[in-house]
Amino acid sequence: MEKLPEKRRRKAVLDWLSSFAFVLPVVIGIAVFTIVPMVSSLLYSFTRTLTTVKDMGPWVWLENYRLIFGVYWKQIGESLGVTFLFTVISLPLNLVLSFALALFLAKDIRGIRAFRVIYYLPVMLPAVVSGILWSSLASGSDTSAFNVILTHLHLPAFSFYDSGDTALFTFILLGLFNIGGSMILWIAQIKAIPVSMFEVADLEGANAFVRLVRIILPLCTPMIFYNLITGIINSLQVFNGVVTLNIEPEGKEALGFIVVQIYDFYNSTDLSMACALSWILFLIIAIISALTFKLNRWVYYGEEV
Amino acid sequence: MKTVRSVKIAEYVVRYAVLALFAVLFLFPVVEMVLKSFMSDLDIRFGELFPTSWGLASYAEAIDAKYWWWMRNTIIIGVINMVGITLSSSLCAFGFAKLRFKGRETLFFLVLATLMLPSICMQIPLYKIYYGMNWTNTWLPLTVPGFCGGGALNIFLMRQYMKGTPDSICEAAKVDGANKLGIYLVIVLPMCVPILGYVALTSFLGCWNDFMTPLLYINRESIYNLSLGLYYRYVNNAGSIPPANVQMAAATVMLLPCIVLFFCFQKMLINGVTVGAVKG
Questions:
Q1: Are B223 and B139 within 8 A, CB to CB?
Q2: Which residues in chain A touch residue B111, judged by CB atoms under 8 angstroms apart?
């Protein structure tokens, strides 16, 4: 009588272990490549470690954070400002334009697939390729492709990436070539809307605007939310697109986003400062994402909720 | 009736005209890149949009022995990751989708939460960890993480897909005495071929495009991947940087495999992108 529960428990444990074994890779992955580095990053940020290869330096506690908000604030505050400015301008612009493009492309007409592929093409460019490409096409010299076109149209040449005043504008503008990525998602979402809804709307005599505001937009809110969250997280971490540019120093300075700053600290072997800054970035992203999740009442998840 | 028809035709014409206009716009950068790659140095200096004479000299200069070597490195890293990521993410996704065990939901939430962490937070202290294990300047930092879960997004996508496959078959197999590994290998995996293909392909492309990881952990020229090789040649080069036609030739050859793969597997890629996003 007493042996049965024991046997059962052993079986349950074995069952749990054999199930857990399947997710073991990701458990190890999160432990080794996420939690350990996150924690050590926090620890390093409380030390003065001016090496990326030797042991941890002496403890200085909040000194690095004091430096960030003190001596370095001019540089870092500016960098945070540029990063926010970039996010606030480019993210809504990207969302609205990719949605508009998707509305236009959602209808299945002859040859539409080819157009979708073409619009998606710039998204395929590897970071280094797009860096090389854009630094050449959008340089401020008179012979850059964009300026040649402007001259052909009898317009004055523009400094694009080669001036501190126009680099951010150029970066945001050229970022719009990547709206094909979110466009694909919008199209899928729009096409997932049941046809019957549109049929009913037609019977009721709804025009295109009413259909957009009353049917398409509400049913796309989960995708809006998804694109918003991933967009925020990615824009605040913009890095590859800047580092791969080969442009004048003034232009590059104007694109001194926060992750670029972190990388610069790391490159000058100031590990503790890089870690402190990346933790600040982490907190900013966590707070903004949490707020976005809190405010997601407008997202429509279907009737069953 | 006639006016209705002509309105319809006009609508079509306008629609295609706008589509074509945008197509020209979106094609411009890539087409200009290819055009510039065929130009002579003189064309580049004069800022021509179309080559006045077509030549392959820039390709001969850009695609040297080192270039091939870096491409070989990239392919090896890509294939290793393709295997590692697909294997480990499908194992984990099976665990999250089809097996019931205590702590599953918490763990899955934890996996998704890692998506929100800025990668730079992890990558910098990881350098020190890798250095301690003598992993820097090897391919280990670029390949081993792939075997450990394969990324939260891939697990999520695969789990969504597996949830859509019928449970009844798994139950039946269980009754017939199949163990978990058997169910995973014989029943679930064959049903998941589209999403497996998607994950395999995107992991390869991801590796092909990867720039930040090699930038942080590798500085020996012989083990560069293509991204890093081109970066140190044409972007961050203290010496003289070759002219734009050579740069564009190097970039064109690097883009080529992406485009070929994209065209061949277009439908699978687009379907895969939307599996998780629409259902999630």
A1: yes
A2: 26, 30
